[in-house]
Amino acid sequence: MLEVVFNRNCVYQTAYHVVWCPKYRRSVLTGAVADSLRLLLTEVCNENGWVILSLEIQPDHIHLFVSIPPSKAVSDAVKKLKGTTARKLFLQ
Predict the structure, then answer these.
(1) What's the CATH architecture for 5-91?
(2) Contact indicator for 37, 82 with CB cutoff of 8 Å
């Protein structure tokens, strides 16, 4: 269950369901790639103080249910998640 967070000047309980897929929806998220992606997503979220509530990696898409504080724009968070993981996966 998602907890209510008390900040100095606000109280919030935000969670976002983000879904994205590889180009042309190819089935490339299997085996070692899926394991690396799971670790990278966890690493990026931990670095930024976001909480992963649920993460499912299918061969052709990703479901991520994540809690992001209201001080961070959701679009910036998704940009950071997708950009960082894609860059690091291509370098492997």
Answers:
(1) 2-Layer Sandwich (3.30)
(2) no
Q: What number is the average pLDDT over the span 69-78?
A: 95
Structure tokens at 23: 């180009």
- Report the amino acid identity of residue 68: I
In angstroms, the first-to-last Cα distance of the chain is 35
H or E element, residue 87: helix 74-91
Secondary structure class of 29 (helix, strand, coil): coil
What pTM value is reported for the model? 0.90
Structure tokens at 16: 């976002």
CA distances from 91 to 36, 46, 51, 75 (A): 12, 21, 26, 24
